[in-house]
Amino acid sequence: MLLPGRLKNILRGSRTGDESPVPPAANGSSHRVPVRRAASQGSASTRLSRGLEEFFAHIRGQSGLHILDLGGATQQNVTFITNLGHRLCTEDFLQILGDTFGEEDTVDQSNPGRIDYFLRQALDYPEDHFDGVLVWDVVEYLEPPLLNATIERLRRIVRPRSYMLAFFHSDDKLQAVPFYTFRIQEMNTLHVSQEGARRPAQLFNNRSLEKLFGQFASVKFFLTRERLREVIVKV
Asked: I need a labelling partner for 164 at 20 to 30 A (CA). Which of 54, 67, 173, 190 fits?
């Protein structure tokens, strides 16, 4: 179940009055069909997640933390995080990506003005604001200029010694990869629903991920049965 947009603003707190217009996307349209919110087109499964377990192990025993979820608001994740005593901010990252650049797989993500606009829409938070980020699989679809700017913005808005959890497909020969909705069942368990397929901007191996997160304190990898590489990044 998805949360209405107004509830997202209540959870986030600081943007309820933001009425800045969305510029036309790359193909000239100012109205985009949602990217991630399509009806499920693939399988769903519940599985253990060592990356999620490590993410929650870091914040276990604490309360009142600020957590950012880039997969969009789902009732299950909101309930789970807030029941732990934390505040959850949500961004439908792929929706904002489609609104800003268009949804075609070959759009240009190198325009500096549009990159700046995208970051203001998706990651407009103060420095050292968050105690953890659930990145999920969303940054696979970013071309290098936008990807590097996004990772740098994440580094700035997350507090030192906090953790981020990101997923990357491990098969570097795929022309299109599934994209998913992730719902938290337990501290070490995810319900994973495939929402469709999409061409990744690039695919990563361990070495390229270490380079991508080279400005962070550490990077740790876990390989899943869906051929997803779970990555725990310590800021």
From this structure: 173
Is position 5 within any domain?
A: no
Q: Is residue 209 part of a domain?
A: yes
Q: What is the pLDDT of residue 42?
A: 60
Name every residue whose Cβ is closer than 8 Å to that of residue 172 and which is 6 or more positions away in sequence: 203, 204, 205
Q: How many Cα atoms are found within 13 Å in the side-chain-facing hemisphere of 222?
A: 17
Beta carbons of 180 and 192 less than 8 angstroms apart: yes
Q: Where are the alpha helices (DSSP H) in 74-165?
A: 75-83, 93-101, 112-122, 144-157
**Cβ atoms 150, 139 nearer than 8 A:** yes
Name the pTM for this structure.
Answer: 0.82
Structural domain for 164, as ranges: 38-234
For CA atoms 171, 172, 175, 178, the dihedral sign is positive
Assign 178 to helix, strand or coil: strand
Going from the C-alpha of 222 to that of each of 59, 202, 208, the distances in angstroms are: 19, 19, 15
pLDDT band at 11 (very low <50, low <70, confident <90, very high): low
Cα gap 157→159, rounded to integer Å: 7
State the total domains in the chain: 1
Separation of alpha carbons 200 and 189, rounded Å: 26
What CATH number is given to the structural domain containing 46? 3.40.50.150
Answer yes or no: is 132 within a domain: yes
Q: Are 207 and 63 in contact (CB under 8 A)?
A: no
- Specify the 3-state DSSP secondary structure of 3: coil
